[in-house]
Amino acid sequence: MSSSSLLNHHKIHIGKQPYRCTECGKFLKKHSTFVSHQKIHSREKPHKCSECGKAFRKNSILLSHHRIHTGHKPCKCNDCGKAFAQNAAVTCRERLHSGEKPFKCKECGKAFRDNSTVLEHQKIHTGEKPYQCNDCGRAFRKSSTLISNQRIHTGEKPYHCSKCGKSFRYSSSFAGHQKTHSGNKPYQCNDCGKAIMKRSTFMDIREFILEKNPISVTNVGSPSDIALALLNIRESILEKNLMNVISAGKLFPRVQPLNNIRKLIMKQQPLNVVW
């Protein structure tokens, strides 16, 4: 250990924190930490990702972020073995298992697993939207949301699948797409045994079919009844922009759950319905 490192280390034991932030009053032990901390207040993010354009305060965070694009996941959760690109994600994952939520919102008391999420949440109360799009003028609470919005204007799709060459605008869409190549369907219905690739799809279909209005191939009704229901769904999409499944009497405010259900019904009872 060098003499300077030894001096910095010794400050931990004696509680000495010589660097004080003039913005928030926080004391810090090391000058490098103090400089990095000041960038929080200035919103300075000099380290930019060449793949997606996202910017960071520290180069170490940029290097960690870059693993998202390379697919390298060296950090594993001790509880479930799931691998992540970043240590922070592992910490958050372990808190998911333990139920720990140490970060609380001062306004409403809502608790969160990580500090960055509570900071973003607090902007809901303040109404702060510091990130504005130069193309459309829309303002956002998060810089990542601004970057996603800008890709709509530019048409940029920085996430490329090495298997099929398909490109994606968002990392979440890219991650979901990669599962289609693996063929892994980890979500299985206990009632009918059907396996689903995506958890969101599984929950949408299960809620519709098994919990709210139990139906099966035998009791769903005649093909003509299903056809009528599907046609009514189509009419709702075109006229009201709200999905109305008449056969179940359930309203869907989102398009995707309806499409998932429609595909399942059509697979079980093939019909000649024009969409």
UniProtKB/TrEMBL annotation:
Recorded superkingdom: Eukaryota
Signal peptide range: none
Single Gene Ontology MF annotation: DNA-binding transcription factor activity, RNA polymerase II-specific
GO CC, any one term: nucleus
Record-linked Pfam families: zf-C2H2 (PF00096)
SUPFAM superfamilies: beta-beta-alpha zinc fingers
SMART domains: ZnF_C2H2 (SM00355)
Keywords linked to the UniProt accession: DNA-binding, Metal-binding, Nucleus, Repeat, Transcription, Transcription regulation, Zinc, Zinc-finger
Biological processes, Gene Ontology terms: regulation of transcription by RNA polymerase II
C2H2-type domain residues: 19-46, 47-74, 75-102, 103-130, 131-158, 159-186
Role: May be involved in transcriptional regulation.
Stated family: Belongs to the krueppel C2H2-type zinc-finger protein family.
Annotated protein name in UniProt: C2H2-type domain-containing protein
Organism of origin: Equus caballus
